[in-house]
Amino acid sequence: MEVHLPKVRNEVNLNTAMHLVTIATVLIGIGAMWSEQRSQNNQQDEWIKKHETQHSAILLDINTTNNSFEQRLKLLELALTEDKNRDYRIAQLEKGIEVTNDRITQTNEIARQQAEDIRNDISQLSTQVELSKQILIRLEAKQVNTNTLLQDLPKRNGAS
């Protein structure tokens, strides 16, 4: 048995040509998209590098600012602990002022009482001095009367 090979025709079918053109067009389109994608990727890589440097500079500024804020916070915490001591000291001073005010009030009361006693003593002395004056005036008046009587006595005795 003999096998016969089919005859090869050297004709180009229209469908085959269309398929080859379509495949070529698709390959060219893929290549164009590939190159466009690569250029976009390169642009994005450049943009990323540029922004990474900007962000690193911003991050450095933020870290510097954070460090300064942390230092300020530590200083404020120290100031707050000192303020607690100040609050205690102020409370102690206020207690001392209250005690001093109480003592001043007591001293004023004692001075007022002493002044009242002195006024009473002066009033009593004034009354005693006035009485003494009245007594002296009466005694002087009696003495004057006695002296005039004594002077008049020899005149009366001689005239009688």
Please tell me about this protein's structure:
With 160 residues, the chain is mainly alpha-helical. Helix content is 91%, strand content 0%.
Keyphrases for this structure?
single chain, 160 residues, mainly alpha, 1 helix
Architecture blueprint of SSEs:
Elements: H1 14-159
Number of strands: 0
Class of secondary structure makeup: mainly alpha
Strand content: under 5%
Number of helical segments with 4 or more residues: 1
**Helix content, binned percent:** over 70%
Summarize the structure.
It is built from 1 helix and no strands. It is mostly helical and about 160 residues long. The N and C termini lie far apart (about 225 Å).
